[in-house]
Every structure is written in C-alpha cells, then in structure tokens.
C-alpha cells in the first residue's frame, strides 16, 4: 500500500485525482500506477485499470489469479468489473467512496448474484493517509 | 451497428468472444473495435473499452459527450462504468446479457442513485445477428 499511496501523491502533483494502485504477486510488486485520465486523454485510465493492464502485459496473460490489488480508494464499477475479469485474488483498499465506489456503495458489484468472480476484500488499509490526500486535493482545487 | 457487427464477426474468427463496438460522432465512425482480451493479454480489452479509448485518443480528450456508442452486446459493469466516465451521449446495444450485463441485468449500473452520468439507452438494435454470432461461437467451442 506504500507504493500505491506514493503513486496517489504523484497523481495529485500533476493535477489528477490522487488515487494509486499496485498489483502484487508473491510479495513482490508487479506494477504500480497512478490515476491519469486527464494526462492520458483516456476516461478509463484509473489507477486500478492501468496497474492491472500493465501487470497482465508483463506476465503475458489476461488472468491474474495469483495476484493481489492494492488501491488507495474504493474501486468504481469499471474497476470492480476489471478486477473480476482479471480474477484478482485479494483486493485491499484504503478509503471508502460513497459517491463513486462500487464495492460497499452504489452497485455493490461483488455482492451481485451475477458477479462471476469475487476477490477476498480488505477495506480501510491506509485509509487515513488515502483520505487526507483526497481531501487536500479537493480543498486546494476549490480554494 | 453494421461496423460493430462486422468487428464482432472478426473477433470470432480469431477465437475471441464475438462482441464489437463503434464510437460515432456527427454520424461518422470515430473508432471501431473488437473484443480482444486473449489476443492482447488484457483483461480490460472489451470492444467498448477499446473503442472508447481509441476515440478519446483520436479526439485528444477524456470526455466524449458528443459521441454515441454502438455495441453488439449489453455492456458489463466495467464497460458501463467506462461509458459513464466518458460521458457517452447515447448507448445503442444489440443482445441482452443476463449473465454479464450491467445495464438491464445484475448491478443495473445506470439505474443506481450514485451513477453520475446516464446516456440515453436503446436496446435490441441488431439483436438477432449479434445473438446468432454469440450462439454460433459458443456452440462451436462446446462441439
């Protein structure tokens, strides 16, 4: 989660909403990414998507059933769907997201009967730091 | 939808689940894509994601509020989330997908109170041909 939090900080520094993610396999980081939709002109470029795609590219396969995903914010529906498609084993996330989250909020994607893959889910990891990054970012933009 | 159906046929020819998508702006196709997670080693490489990402790249912006998406199958949660993030104006899709769909099935993403953007939605366009492509594909794989 340290790497994901650092990536989130880097995102804030370039004006992106500060969210970071890391894919971990056998205790080693395979890929780390920061949220970058504005920079990349890509509406799908959330940190989770970029980290999952990069890990799949590096491992040369579309399924990451031996990998865990660490992300600083509760994933949205798009990212939750990608986590299921990638067959991620464990999902660790920081702050909950009542507005855009799709794990414990909104569509509660993994609780749907049609969900074809549910990772083990651990919430609240690094929550304080992840939340502070987001609050500071939005406070600065409003001010 | 013709272009999306042709892309779906092309996907089947290389062993991918036959789904195709096109992004259209002012009556002209901006991007067409076929489902390609196996070919690209990318669990997020659904036809909708590839078409949205390519259109955003071509137009040089992360929001496609003046674009429509045509896709042969009901989008999953990942793709529905991407459609919302991209601010797609209208969604036209072919066959419904009771197993993986997230528009009229499962999470019903666009009907969630937390959904921040809902396109106009038109279902059943080209449904017969889209469904036949999928049925033939899965019948052949089982046989």
TrEMBL record, chains A, B:
This enzyme's EC code(s): 3.5.4.33
Alphabetized UniProt keyword annotations: Hydrolase, Metal-binding, tRNA processing, Zinc
Swiss-Prot/TrEMBL catalytic activity: adenosine(34) in tRNA + H2O + H(+) = inosine(34) in tRNA + NH4(+)
Residues binding Zn(2+): 46, 76, 79
GO biological process, one term: tRNA wobble adenosine to inosine editing
Catalytic residues as annotated in Swiss-Prot or TrEMBL: 48 (proton donor)
Pfam families cross-referenced by the UniProt entry: dCMP_cyt_deam_1
Keyword Hydrolase listed: yes
Residues annotated as domain CMP/dCMP-type deaminase: 1-104
GO MF assignments: tRNA-specific adenosine-34 deaminase activity; zinc ion binding
Cofactor list: Zn(2+)
Cofactor annotation comment: Binds 1 zinc ion per subunit.
Biological function: Catalyzes the deamination of adenosine to inosine at the wobble position 34 of tRNA(Arg2).
Quaternary structure and interacting proteins, as annotated: Homodimer.
Family: Belongs to the cytidine and deoxycytidylate deaminase family. ADAT2 subfamily.
HAMAP family according to UniProt: tRNA_aden_deaminase
Protein name: tRNA-specific adenosine deaminase
Source organism: Sphingomonas naasensis
